[in-house]
Design goal:
By secondary structure, the protein is mainly α. The chain has a domain of about 110 residues: Orthogonal Bundle (Arc Repressor Mutant, subunit A), CATH 1.10.10.10. It contains seven helices and two strands. Strands 1-2 form a two-stranded antiparallel sheet. The longest helix has 21 residues.
């Protein structure tokens, strides 16, 4: 059997395997969070928002309308830092606060049409930049990498309430 399934192990993986994976994750994160890459992405997208701001915008789009407290948990940001980013996005007309008909105390945030347009610009730039890193990879390698990374990011440490997948909405923002 050429494609027989390899049994999974029930015991914890060997330390050297875990270390290799951790090293690779750190190596991926380092340039992804660099100011140099942020400046390049900004230049290519034409969007003068930071990587952090556009990441928050993406989470609003995937889960909006969403209360800031839940958004802070999903983005793993402290509330004060998230509040600053929401302010940046509001001033850029990328998000707006909307009334919650079930609870007058909170003000969920939702993306605006401009926010959706900016998100598309940033996504195109991100895909272009990352595609350059994947030149020469086979389709099988790309599929395998995607499968393993998806598996790694949906493990037990994924916070409750962050299982919203791309395109899935938890509420209704205006679709225009």
């Amino acid at each position: 059997m050429a494609n027989a399934a390899v049994p999974t192990q029930d015991a914890p993986p060997a330390r050297q395997h875990v270390q290799r994976i951790l090293d690779a994750v750190v190596a991926i994160q380092r340039p992804a969070n660099s100011r140099k890459l942020d400046a390049l992405r900004t230049a290519r997208s034409g969007v003068p928002l930071s990587l952090v701001s556009t990441g928050v915008l993406r989470q609003v789009m995937e889960g909006g309308p969403i209360r800031p407290a839940l958004l802070a948990r999903r983005t793993r940001m402290i509330p004060a830092a998230l509040s600053r980013q929401l302010g940046v996005l509001e001033r850029a007309d990328c998000i707006e606060r909307v009334a919650d008909p079930t609870d007058g105390r909170g003000s969920p945030v939702c993306e605006t049409p401009r926010g959706r347009a900016i998100h598309r610009q940033v996504e195109r730039a991100n895909i272009g930049l990352f595609s350059e890193q994947l030149v020469g990879w086979s389709t099988a390698d790309l599929d395998g990498a995607a499968r393993f990374l998806e598996r790694l990011t949906t493990g037990p440490r994924t916070p409750v309430g962050s299982q919203t997948h791309r395109g899935e909405r938890t509420g209704a923002c205006s679709p225009t």
